[in-house]
Amino acid sequence: EDQVTQSPEALRLQEGESSSLNCSYTVSGLRGLFWYRQDPGKGPEFLFTLYSAGEEKEKERLKATLTKKESFLHITAPKPEDSATYLCAVQVTIQGAQKLVFGQGTRLTINP
Amino acid sequence: ETGVTQSPTHLIKTRGQQVTLRCSSQSGHNTVSWYQQALGQGPQFIFQYYREEENGRGNFPPRFSGLQFPNYSSELNVNALELDDSALYLCASSLKPPSGANVLTFGAGSRLTVL
Question: Are A72 and A56 in contact (CB under 8 A)?
């Protein structure tokens, strides 16, 4: 069964304190691994797609990396506006449709 | 370029009632997917519509149904509401057929509370 597990569930950092979020996955036939950001009361906002082990992508203070079993979202010198829930998802095919299987998310809080 | 818009944003129903949620997809997108997100959880796939037909469904009972219209907008209908149906319902649009992984653009969601 396709499964995505994120850790930690919640993380509280001081402004400027770098850290990493983990996403481990079990999937048959990875078509892509996605990172989304979700603010309270809003829908997920796309951050990155990674396709193959060894791939890395960066956007401002965020960098996503991918291995054969997990992905990391590195946050460098975060600011309070980076506070959000970060969702990891893998794309799989079901009955001709492409669906995302999400983890439960990591709730990140950056204190000023 | 307009994003994905959903309505209503919030609604309250009682157990046993029926509800219809609406979604307008992003300009240029022809595929709509619906997800259910319970509080503190990640979104779960309900189903996907392409060319006005359902072409994939997650582990949701038949009382969850949908429609896609010629302008690619969509509806999610839930009959015989249960307390556990209380959740944020997310609509996402994308462009199919994709070459590889395709990015979903999500709306802000409809928050359903069942009493």
Answer: no
